[in-house]
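REQUEST ID: PR-0412
SUBMITTED BY: lab tech R.K.
PRIORITY: routine
TASK: structure prediction, single protein chain
INPUT:
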Amino acid sequence: MTKPVPAAAVWALGMTQIVGYGSLYYSFSVLAPAIAGSFGWSTEWIFGSLTLALLVGGLAAPFTGRMLDRFGAARSMSAGSVLVSLFLVLMAIAPDGPFFVVALMGMEVASTLVLYAAAFAVLVQLGGRQAQASITHLTLIAGFASTLFWPATAFLDGQIGWRASYVVFATINIVVCLPLHLWLSRISDPARLAPPEAFAIDLPAESPVTGGPPRLLFSLVLIGFALQGLVLAAVTLQMVPLLQALDLGTQVLLISSIFGPAQVLARLINMVFGGKLAPTTLAVIAAASLPLALLLLTVSAPAMGGAVAFALIFGLGSGLTSIVSGSLPLHLFGRHNYGARQGQISAARQMAAAIAPFTMALAIGHAGVAATLWSWTALALLPVACFGLIIPMRQRAAVSGNRTRAAPAE
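STATUS: complete
OUTPUT:
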């Protein structure tokens, strides 16, 4: 019998995720112009270095995911807090662009130890299958990272510059996140965790979850999340130029500002009303929201109402995807090797996300915005198919399991 995840643990992780995503991810887009100017580079080159760093971080994610299982996720997050602080300081003191890029790559590798994949693993190691509700609560809290850190970063950059801003972020990661991660490592000591058998899927050995076909099942999960990551990264990072290309004029910033609150709204709605939905069903809903939003934008542009509906639905889908990325692997495969699976999923999503903005920008430049939207709407249907195929596989496995248990012993 497992105990629910302590509320204090969820709030502690929520705080570290706000700081983590705020200082390591959202701050970059605000500081990029100043960084580029100090090195005499174009902003495009700085964002290109981020693409390279994301690819390196994605390649490292499977290894860091295995660390979460081997050494404990909370202990790994403690080490990660130290490492991200170190690399943030190195970025702050970088004498030239190449040094900064190397430090940025190190920061992206270290970030795989402190962001969602690691935080989800902490919750699973604390609560097993009962961690599914806690994952929803965590993503709701962490959803305020952009709301807090975009204006805070702009203020710091204006007052003390980008270098001192990164020193401030390094300090926050040490002063705020490290003590919380160390506390979490004490309450999630391996001796206090329930054994993996307590979370085994109740299906026969030849089922899609526990036998040979789990490779097919996991491949569907991996491809689905990678394609979702591709679409989400491309559209969110290109949202402003995309809307501008559709002649939405001065309303662009207002429309794009709906996206962030919509993510938080999706997590809140799921927390209140989504308890009875299976993670497989939620995965299909989250995936289907993306092509629906893109289709609305494509057929309605440049109407303001269609653009607002796009931003709202796309934000809802993005918010639900954050929950599904933690709950679906737990639902399908259980707690055993959860960290390693999260590492592989993070790698697939991060490498897809790294190439996404460039790919969409290239498509808009060569094919035009209308053709690009139609093609990306079609692309966004593929994750729906991947997650949709999982539902009948699970149903057949459940039926097979019931028959096996009902068969008389020979």
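NOTES: Confidence is low (pLDDT under 50) at residues 192-212.
REVIEWED BY: pending
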